[in-house]
Structure formats: C-alpha cells, structure tokens
Design brief:
4-stranded antiparallel beta sheet, alpha/beta, 16 helices, single chain
Length: 475
C-alpha cells in the first residue's frame, strides 16, 4: 500500500469528518439533497465537492492546502511554479499563449497541434507560422520534429515571439526536444510544450525524458490521461524567466471557473502523491505486464502489426496497423468483444495501458480469440488505402484572424470547396488535431482525405461534415 501524502485531499477528509451543517453552496449539501436513486454512485464524490470554506483554501488566491499541494507538485515535477487546472490542458494552452503573445505577433507552431492551441492563437490574435513534422518510417506517420526545421522557421520569421510544440504526440512518440530547446533559447524565445500525454514521463526509467528536463519554459500536462487523476484535471508548470508567472496567473483567473471543483483538485494532489511514491517494484511489475501484452498482440500478425517501441516511445502506448482494413473497422471488431481502444485513425489503432495492470491477461486472450474468429468469418473487409496527407514544411494562414472575423461565411459541398478558404477547422476527434485549418485554402488532397475518413466512419467535431464545409464568401 502506497503511503500517500496529499494535503488538499487530507483537508477535504477532515472537513467531511467534522459533519458540518452547511449554510453555503453547493446546493447538494454534501450529497444530502440529491436524486436518491443515483446517490450510491455519487455519494463519496459529493462529500468532497466542497467550496472555499475555512480550511479548504482558494485556487485563485492559494495560501493554505491548495498552495501546499501545488508546491509539492512543483517540487516533484521540477518547476518553479505549478498551477492546478480544472478545465483541462485546454485552459493551460490558452493561458500560456495569451501570456506570451499579443495581436499580430508571429508564433512558431507545430502543424499537428491540438485544436486548443489554435483556439488560443485565435483568441490572442496571433499570426501562426506552422512547421510540419517529417515522415518517420518507424511510426508510419508524420511525427518527427527537428531542431533544423524549427530554426528554419525562426530564420524565416525572426520576429516570432514563441515556439509551441506537442511532446509527445497522441501515440506517445517523442523527438529530440533538448536540441530544439537549445536553438529556441539561442533566440531568447520561450518554448511552450503541450505535454498532454506525458505526465508519466516524470517517473523516469522506462519513459522518455520530460519536457521540463529537456529545457521547456512552460508545460501543460493532462494528468487525467496517463496518471490517476479525474478527467479535466491538469497541471501547468513554469520554469525560468521567459514566461511570466504573473501573466499566466492572470489569464488562468480569467479563463478558469471561479468555482473550481475540489474533487478534481484533490485528484491532482493524489496523482502527484501516487507518482511520488512510485517504486522500482512498481516499475518492474509494469515492465513485465507490458511485455506480456506485446507478446500477446504479436500473436495475431495475420490481422495486424504491432509497431515496435523504442527509446523515443511511451511504452504505455500500443499502436496496431491492420493488414486488410481501416483502423476504424478494427476498432469496431475490438469493441464488439469489449476491448475498447483509445483511438482509431485511417491506418492505425491506438491502445493505452495504465501505470498498473488493470485486467487479466487470460481474459484479454479470450476476447482476442473472439475477435480473431470474427475477423476470419468476415469477407471483403479490405479497404481502400490512401497516403496520409502531407503539409508544407513551413506554412502560414491565408488571412489574419482579425481580418477573418469581418468576413461573411457560407456552407458549400465538398466538391465545390477546393480552392476556397476554410472558415472553420475540420477536426477528426479523437485526436482533436485539425486536418484543415481555419484560414487555410482547401486543396484537392484535403477533399479526398476527408471523403476517405467519412467513408471509413471517422468522427468529426463538425456538425455539417457530410454536407460540406463552411468557407468565406466573396474570395
């Protein structure tokens, strides 16, 4: 049993133990006012769902247990300042971008970034300069970001105010971030990292190095993705002087709820404590489990290939490449037998493990055998494969965000969209990375790839995706 020390969680338990008579919000009164049939599933959470009463501190002006919990997280992750986020890594990305750039500022951005980064740039009125990763045969994706590509963008756009990268990508792939940090800091610019999928890297050992270790100035981590925290619970870390802590704090107060969730904050406190008490025995048990899982999936080479995992990869991410179907079709076959993947894309399927074994190997064997039987019976499940869409090495938008705000829009069918400028981003979800950017001219390659994804069953965060796309009028 891990000896957890989590000051915020402990204070919440103390508050519950005092059996308080509530003359304050929230309205469920520690679970005493609730729909009775649902109470068993919510009771323990509702007891912790408190507000800023004496002893529980205030996220937006922390002086007590929240400050202590954030300070402990900062010590563990190696930051100068750590903030708890209750609106996910999204709000951290927004706050960081607003803190380092102003209207019209050029910012170097990795092209396959999360939509929250683009939303932050639009809110700031910044002028993004996109750098596209290069293709890697090891991943069969455009996943490699290099110091040379970032420096090329900095030389071409010397007035840039920051560099924003994603490390690792959704599939757990990293790159030489240290070399990039060195080049970015040569220009005395801040390096901001969306490390949504890398909180567990702090455990060291079998994991790649963290973004802070590599020299990042500010990092946002989705604690809920790969460590034991609740959904929407994230960390924001600042290190050094290139990013103003005061400006970050200002924008977090502006963007985050003024009534932050105590269960979410407590889960961040507990997640840090869990990782801080991680042992060599925990690591060895996890390594053994991962080895067994990989060996099991490698037994089905006639149906899929399990991509190898090396020093640049998160070992908790397993990427399968189907032999004769799309990633979406393989995902459906898995789900029909109760194996629930994290994400499917056209040519790959992503499976995510936890920091501890959470299921029986024997049960997984049974279910995979059922998947195998299902796939053997199915006929004509081959799918048309198309090369992944590629982007220019360095790219800017056709128009500024401020100018786009003045333009009327219309929806056109996909066959009429080629050559027009998109007034909305086209976002397959997951992973939430735009295929077409707002302000980008739509190409024939865009059109064909979107149609392929629709045919394969991809989900989009676009209400009219099958009918067409919103574009700007009169251009």
């Amino acid at each position: 049993m891990k000896n957890l020390h989590a000051p915020l969680y402990d204070a919440l338990m103390t508050n519950i133990g005092q059996d308080p008579i509530s003359f304050h919000v929230p309205g469920h009164k520690y679970g005493r006012v609730f729909y009775n049939a649902s109470l068993p599933g919510f009771q323990s959470v509702l007891e912790m769902d408190a507000t800023e009463v004496t002893g529980l501190d205030d996220l937006h002006a922390p002086e007590g247990v929240i400050k202590e919990a954030q300070d402990k997280a900062g010590e563990f992750f190696g930051s100068d300042e750590t903030f708890f986020l209750v609106n996910g890594t999204t709000v951290g990305n927004l706050a960081l971008i607003l803190s380092v750039c102003q209207q019209g500022d050029q910012v170097i951005v990795q092209r396959n970034c999360h939509k929250s980064v683009l939303n932050g740039l639009e809110l700031a009125g910044a002028s993004p300069v996109f750098v596209s990763p290069s293709y890697e045969s090891e991943t069969n994706r455009y996943s490699k970001v290099t110091a040379a590509s970032i420096e090329a963008a900095l030389k071409k756009y010397p007035d840039s105010k920051a560099v924003i990268l994603t490390y690792p990508d959704y599939f757990g792939r990293t790159f030489d971030l240290g070399a990039i940090a060195e080049r970015v800091h040569h220009y005395d610019l801040p390096l901001l990292i969306d490390e949504a999928h890398g909180v567990q890297f702090q455990l060291g050992g079998l994991f790649p190095s963290t973004a802070l270790e590599a020299g990042a100035d500010a990092v946002v981590q989705s604690a809920h993705k790969m460590s034991p925290a609740m959904t929407m619970a994230s960390y924001l870390h600042v290190k050094g002087k290139r990013v103003s802590v005061d400006r970050v704090r200002h924008y977090l107060q502006m963007l985050q709820s003024s009534s932050p969730s105590y269960p979410l904050m407590a889960s961040l406190d507990l997640a840090r404590s869990y990782m801080e008490t991680w042992t060599k025995a925990d690591e060895e048990r996890l390594i053994s489990f991962i080895k067994e899982i990989r060996e099991l999936f490698n037994n089905y080479e006639s149906f899929w290939t399990l991509l190898p995992s090396g020093p640049l990869d998160d070992p908790l991410k397993l990427t399968l490449e189907p032999e004769e179907m799309s990633g979406y079709a393989l995902s459906e076959a898995f789900e029909s037998e109760g194996i629930i993947p994290e994400m499917a894309v056209s040519h790959q399927l992503l499976l995510v493990l936890g920091l501890e074994p959470t299921f029986s190997i024997e049960e997984l064997k049974t279910r995979l055998s059922a998947v195998e039987s299902k796939l053997k019976k199915e006929k004509n499940h081959a799918t048309i494969k198309q090369d992944q869409i590629s982007f220019p090495p360095i790219q800017t938008l056709e128009w500024s965000y401020s100018y786009m705000q003045t333009l009327p829009e219309e929806i056109v069918g996909w066959e009429r969209s080629v050559g027009r400028i998109a007034s909305e981003a086209v976002i397959p979800y997951p992973p939430g990375i735009p295929l077409i950017l707002k302000g980008e001219r739509i190409s024939k390659q865009h059109y064909k790839y979107v149609q392929l994804l629709i045919e394969q069953g991809a989900r989009f965060q676009n209400a009219t995706i099958e009918k067409g796309i919103r574009v700007f009028k009169g251009e």
